[in-house]
């Protein structure tokens, strides 16, 4: 049995993929975890510019 790391889609529906990813981020508190990992570290200029 092979294990697939990424989901495969017969028909690419980016709206559905977006909803799936957002749900995973919400369910697993990904954003909060990423902020905790970087706590106390300076933010890179390239990261700041990505938010503009």
Summarize model confidence as the mean pLDDT: 82
Whole-angstrom Rg: 16 Å
Please give the largest β-sheet: none
Q: What is the molecular shape?
A: elongated
Measured as a percent range, the helix fraction is 55-70%
Give the tally of structural domains: 1
- How much of the polypeptide forms β-strand, as a percent range? under 5%
Spatial separation of the terminal alpha carbons: 45 Å
Structural class based on helices, strands and sheet pairing: mainly alpha
Q: Low-confidence parts, pLDDT < 50 over ≥5 residues?
A: none
Helical element count? 3
State the oligomer: single chain
Describe the 3D structure.
By secondary structure, the chain is an all-alpha fold. It is elongated. It has one domain. Helix content is 56%, strand content 0%. The longest helix is centred in the middle third of the chain and has 14 residues, at 14-27. The protein is built from 3 helices and no strands.
Quick tags:
single chain; 52 residues; mainly alpha; 3 helices; 0% strand; elongated
Short description:
This protein has 52 residues and is an all-alpha fold.
Helix and strand topology:
Blueprint (H helix, E strand, L loop, with lengths): L13 H14 L2 H9 L6 H6 L2
